[in-house]
Q: What sequence folds into this?
């Protein structure tokens, strides 16, 4: 075969052609405040979907099924007030359609979330086709987790099947704090005429034990709250997370993040489609001074958000030259989904006194897929399929809850059945979270 000569001028032109997309991907990053102080990103201008013309489909990445096998094992550490419900819905639809086993707290019939840092085997619905309370078959037999639980790699590795991918999602700590402050009722309990005034008054005398508004993203990711103000401990924990998580999505770049998730999991375009859930109709306006106070209060959250925001854009740069075309195609696909499935939006007031959120009215003459995507989850269906009989509320319940705990790593080789029955320290069991 004859070699093809390329002139130096053409060679330089080819290099510029391939490097230009990578350079453009870094344009969103305007400046970064290091050491957990402040960080701002300016997104490159993207036209609205309605203004876009149909993309050239020959340039869109094909589904990965021809080059890799779709992955079914995934732990999603669901953080609070970060668009995590929309992401949860995507993953639940995928798992439900494939009859996969989910980690579900049977004692929380409303949504299956864990209510404490503990994970007890007796709390969990058994994996698909596993009899209730046959705890030895719970080990390494779950495919997916999408519920709220505090990240603990040892406990989750005990439950999940081998080669599970780990992901989470983070949001700008200022917006996340304001959303949580309103949603969880702190705005109702605090004096002030506006959200900004109420937040300012609360920060004048903050409660370090307040739930959901004290570095709550780092709390969800498993960090001990006692170390939130220790910069060395925070940096060390972020390094640990960077080694253990395969992908951390960023709320402000949700669509961009989903393209990375699709690539990580080898999923099709249809499998990352979504309709927003729990989107608020109004938000409080915060002055720069109040924003900076929130950043100082949530300094650990700021650091972890900054780190994984930078990581996201490094992953995007490695995605390849098709990223912008793929993103445009995906967003058009999303608009077609909304046009097909949604006929109206309805505001819904939360019981905590928070701002109203948007709910979607699905067309009656539509497919079942629309019903799945437009509703915030399949928890009821998942629970009924995985175990139609919730753990009986009888005298055995309290006894079982106290004894069946998840072993810690590197325990001695003893019978799991005997250890779980007796809950003995010498079997390597730990009580609590």
A:
């Amino acid at each position: 075969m004859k070699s093809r000569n390329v002139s130096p001028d053409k060679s330089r032109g080819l290099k510029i052609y391939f490097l230009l997309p990578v350079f453009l991907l870094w344009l969103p990053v305007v400046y970064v405040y290091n050491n957990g102080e402040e960080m701002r990103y300016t997104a490159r201008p993207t036209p609205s979907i309605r203004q876009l013309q149909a993309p050239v489909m020959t340039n869109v990445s094909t589904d990965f099924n021809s080059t890799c096998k779709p992955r079914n094992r995934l732990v999603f550490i669901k953080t609070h007030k970060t668009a995590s419900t929309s992401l949860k819905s995507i993953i639940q639809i995928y798992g439900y359609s494939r009859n996969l086993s989910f980690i579900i707290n049977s004692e929380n019939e409303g949504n299956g979330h864990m209510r404490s840092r503990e994970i007890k085997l007796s709390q969990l619905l058994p994996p698909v086709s596993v009899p209730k309370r046959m705890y030895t078959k719970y080990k390494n037999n779950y495919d997916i987790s999408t519920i709220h639980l505090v990240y603990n790699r040892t406990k989750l590795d005990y439950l999940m099947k081998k080669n599970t991918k780990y992901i989470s999602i983070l949001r700008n700590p200022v917006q996340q704090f304001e959303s949580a402050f309103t949603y969880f009722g702190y705005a109702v309990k605090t004096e002030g005429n506006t959200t900004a005034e109420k937040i300012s008054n609360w920060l004048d005398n903050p409660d370090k034990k307040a739930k959901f508004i004290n570095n709550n993203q780092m709390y969800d990711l498993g960090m001990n709250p006692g170390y939130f103000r220790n910069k060395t401990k925070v940096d060390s924990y972020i390094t640990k997370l960077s080694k253990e998580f395969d992908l951390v999505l960023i709320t402000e770049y949700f669509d961009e993040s989903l393209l990375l998730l699709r690539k990580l999991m080898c999923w099709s375009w249809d499998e990352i489609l979504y309709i927003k859930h729990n989107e608020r109709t109004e938000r409080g306006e915060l002055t720069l001074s109040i924003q900076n106070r929130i950043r100082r209060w949530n300094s650990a959250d700021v650091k972890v958000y900054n780190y994984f925001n930078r990581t996201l854009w490094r992953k995007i740069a490695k995605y390849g030259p098709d990223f912008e075309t793929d993103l445009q195609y995906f967003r058009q696909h999303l608009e077609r989904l909304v046009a097909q499935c949604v006929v109206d939006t309805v505001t819904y007031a939360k019981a905590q006194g928070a701002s109203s959120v948007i709910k979607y009215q699905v067309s009656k003459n539509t497919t079942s897929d629309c019903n799945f995507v437009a509703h915030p989850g399949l928890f009821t269906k998942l629970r009924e399929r995985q175990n139609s009989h919730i753990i009986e509320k009888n005298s055995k319940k309290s006894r079982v809850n106290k004894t069946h705990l998840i072993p810690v790593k590197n325990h001695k080789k003893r019978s799991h059945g005997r250890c779980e029955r007796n809950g003995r320290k010498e079997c390597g069991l730990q009580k609590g979270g």
